[in-house]
């Protein structure tokens, strides 16, 4: 005999699920809401307990000049990766115009007529491409004020026909160009750890690449929502370019243990680099994967940022990742156990984007 059950989900969560679906099915994203002329944001975007804590404006993440002599750059990268987990890289050899073109073609895609843009809307990653508003829309507590194209550029090539033509060649070229700087950076990060320069590349950390192109439309109620909720990146390394709007913030802890947010001030032509969870683990907690977030856009212009996440491409059941054996000793025992990429990514996708604890799941 069936028992009477109490349905746990109250009317509000039923309404919320319906509202999410309705929004998703417009295929017009947050840009569509803004185009419709709304002056307040739908409740699915309301972030609970939103404390936009005051930022300490006199602090900023380190800026590193890549054209300095190599031993100096290695030292600077090492200390930034230990103390901040984030830095800006200048004089890296990629012309400002290349970065500007990449950003502006992606902006052009978002500013196409809605009926053209909507045709690309697709949440699944088949063909190595997706375009959706909030990649974690159905998992997160609250939606955020942004739309995103994701392209899996490696190890397999994506189906290029899926990438909108206005930005196709530029995004593919950007992936290639950025990879060369990422290669150099990984070598220097290894050197900073005292392991072989080619160690990360041999572990195929340049091969698994996901490009996330974010469009943050102006928000009519920026104090009610976020652009990207607080998170750490699950990858080994992230390389990001952004326009001049700003909004990215990095969490820091003062000597007294008090936490505060530091604004990443856009620097024309700079690459924003950060350590991901996987590199924190591989470095056996020497380098830090630091929490960050993006404020909802309170400016007049939409903000564009393009992140590339570098991950191991080799993902067999025998390909194990964990602290590099060279870094383990009796004085510095392994902090983490080994795991496969399948287990690592499975754990990531089983959680919400906002929680800190991916590395915690692999602690010994
Ligand atoms: O848009 C940004 O500046 C940061 C985006 C980000 O943190 C991410 O995609 O993981
Ligand atoms: Fe991130």
TrEMBL record:
Pfam entry (one): 2OG-FeII_Oxy
Q: Tell me, what is one Gene Ontology molecular-function annotation carried by this entry? A: metal ion binding
Write down the InterPro entries for this protein, in alphabetical order: DIOX_N (IPR026992), IPNS-like_FE2OG_OXY (IPR044861), IPNS-like_sf (IPR027443), Oxoglu/Fe-dep_dioxygenase_dom (IPR005123)
Keywords noted in UniProt: Iron, Metal-binding, Oxidoreductase
Coiled coil: which residue ranges?
A: none
Q: Where is the Fe2OG dioxygenase domain?
A: 205-312
Q: Which family does it belong to?
A: Belongs to the iron/ascorbate-dependent oxidoreductase family.
Tell me what this protein is called. 1-aminocyclopropane-1-carboxylate oxidase homolog 3-like
> Which organism is the protein's source?
Dioscorea cayennensis subsp. rotundata
Q: What is the lineage of its organism?
A: Eukaryota, Viridiplantae, Streptophyta, Embryophyta, Tracheophyta
């Amino acid at each position: 005999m069936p028992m009477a059950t109490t349905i746990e989900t109250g009317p509000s969560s039923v309404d919320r699920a319906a509202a999410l679906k309705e929004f998703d099915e417009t295929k017009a994203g947050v840009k569509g809401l803004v185009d419709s002329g709304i002056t307040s944001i739908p409740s699915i975007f309301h972030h609970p307990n939103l404390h936009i804590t005051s930022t300490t404006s006199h602090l900023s993440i380190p800026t590193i000049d890549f054209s300095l002599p190599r031993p100096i750059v290695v030292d600077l990268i090492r200390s930034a990766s230990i103390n901040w987990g984030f830095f800006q890289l200048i004089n890296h050899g990629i012309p400002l115009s290349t970065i500007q073109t990449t950003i502006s073609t992606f902006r052009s895609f978002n500013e196409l007529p809605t009926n053209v843009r909507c045709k690309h809307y697709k949440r699944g990653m088949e063909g190595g491409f997706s375009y959706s508003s909030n990649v974690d829309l159905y998992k997160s507590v609250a939606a955020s004020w942004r739309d995103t194209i994701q392209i899996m550029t490696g190890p397999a090539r994506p189906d290029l026909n899926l990438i909108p033509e206005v930005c196709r060649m530029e995004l593919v070229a950007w992936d290639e160009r950025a990879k060369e700087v990422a290669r150099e950076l990984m070598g220097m990060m290894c050197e900073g750890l005292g392991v072989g320069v080619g160690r990360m590349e041999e572990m195929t950390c340049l091969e698994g690449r996901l490009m996330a192109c974010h469009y943050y439309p102006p928000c009519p109620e920026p104090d009610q929502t976020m652009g990207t909720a607080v998170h750490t990146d699950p990858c080994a390394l992230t390389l990001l370019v952004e326009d001049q709007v700003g909004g990215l913030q990095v969490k820091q802890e003062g000597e007294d243990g008090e936490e505060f947010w530091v604004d990443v001030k856009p620097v024309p032509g700079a690459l924003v680099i950060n350590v991901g969870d996987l590199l924190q683990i591989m470095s056996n907690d020497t380098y830090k994967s630091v929490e960050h977030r993006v404020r909802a856009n309170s400016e007049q212009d939409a903000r564009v940022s393009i992140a590339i996440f570098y991950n191991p491409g080799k993902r067999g059941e025998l390909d194990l990742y964990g602290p590099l054996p060279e870094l383990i000793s009796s004085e510095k025992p392994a902090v983490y156990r080994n795991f496969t990429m399948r287990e690592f990514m499975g754990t990531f996708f089983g959680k919400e984007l906002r929680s800190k604890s991916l590395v915690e799941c692999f602690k010994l």
